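Hey, weird one. I pasted the Integral membrane protein sequence into the form twice and got a warning about non-standard characters only the second time. First submission, copied straight from the form history:
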Amino acid sequence: MGRGRGRGIRQRVRRARAAWNTVDVNASAAGSAAQGPAVLLLWSLARMAGDPYGVGYGGALLLLPCVCVLGYVMLPVLGLIHVAVHIGPGWLLGRAVAARARSGRQHAWAWHLLGTTVVGAGWAVVLAVLCGWPFATTAAVCAALAAVPVLWAAQARRRARVFTAPRGPVALWGTSLLASFGLALLAFGVAGVASVTGLGPFKEYEPPELSAAQVAGVWRGEDGAVLRLRPDGRADATRLTAEPSYSDSDDREYVVCDGTGHWSFVTEGRDRVLVRVGGGCGEETEWTVIGTERRPELFLFVGDPDAGDLRVLRRD
């Protein structure tokens, strides 16, 4: 009984592989490649909007020339990889479930979407375990990334039935190239509207509004730095990064200070804590307030904006 059922499953898988031909692979890969620039653009803009430290812009701007020169060379390869690990397995799963449910061929694209959604959820589990990404958001993104390739392949199959011949690879990938520009422009417009209206991940980060009393306390960094801000304006520092003295002949980007000094709280513009450690240990240094009201942070960025050092202090 079990052997006969296993044989039936293998036969359905073989029929699904036969139905999933070169035309479907090329069409799915072209659809996946077409959405690549839009996905990269949305990811970059969302990361820039949500960057509380304001240090991600330089890297993103440097990435744009690389995308223009190398992006359209790599997109077909990435599209094929996407088909191999996501779209193709989703097709096999969808065909197997459709055969089990005895669904007609007119619903093949819907079963394909269902299969890719399940496969995407499996990859979301892997990414949640290995990278700590949120499962629900990752699964939703995987499902969305599969929609265009699946519908593109369905359109290619329908056109092949109507015109009795599939589109050639030049026409297929040429359409993908043109569609990628259109999708990128659409993504840029959507991100712009979302940024203005403050919706979704494109909402610009807003730092918390704290008082001097809320800032007072002990702040610690991952590198062993400790900054104690006393309510009376005194400051105690251990291994604290500070701006070097203007008369420093070593032309150093920063110094590490131990000692006592004073601090003040400035609310003009972004809230900042000005710290000056005595004993000739550098100049007055601005630590900018970020984080949230429940979990505030202080940060200092020293050096080149594209390759500098970020220092973060968190409240005890």
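That's the output from the first submission. The warning seems to come from a hidden character in my clipboard, not from the data itself. The domain at 212-315 is CATH 2.40.128 (Lipocalin).
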